[in-house]
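Course assignment 3, question 2. Fill in each field.
Student: A.L.
Task: Predict the tertiary structure for the chain below.
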Amino acid sequence: MSAGKKWSGLSDRTRKLTLTAMLVAVELMMWLAGLGQVPVGALNMSFLTVPVAVGAILFGPSMGAVLGLSFGLTSLFDAISGRSAMTSFFFSYNPFHTILLCVGTRTLMGWCTGLIFRAVRGEGRVSAWKYYVAAICAPLLNTLFFMGYICLFLYQTEMVQNLAANKGAANPFMFVVLLVGVQGLIEAAVCCFIGGAVSQGVSRAVLKN
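Answer field:
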């Protein structure tokens, strides 16, 4: 029996779990290989939103949340181990807030990305642009939730205040704009094109949607 026939003979649930496990594995391999986190100053430019976006688009909010959780756990490990300067400082300052920052915001990001795709997809065959719209939402929401949490609960910490002063930021909004800057645009572009293309290809070639 060919691989294609074996795959088509699997139940929807089995295919869903198999593809989700593969995406989690991709997430972990990107993180371990250093391909998912590129240090840029105090922050890491992250491409780990790509597998999250693909899973959320293919399987909905619940799988998006699972993949967001896996992303968040790698981020929390970086905070605990010292691989990330900013989140390591936050962990020493307040572990509870750091857990919510690293894990909670990424889980919420994956869940919301799935909800957005569900809202825009409509009935019948999905137009190509809808995959890209949903894919770009993952990095944008990741930045919004992550930096928003910092501004709401950790803005008065010594590290953030020093960064804001060095950037010449007069308020939290300008702090986010100046700190994220070009790196945020690169993250959004990469996730949009790769996440949109992969999710569209898998959806139509493998899931037959």
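Instructor remarks: The chain is about 80% helix and 5% strand. The chain has a mean pLDDT of 89.
Grade: pending
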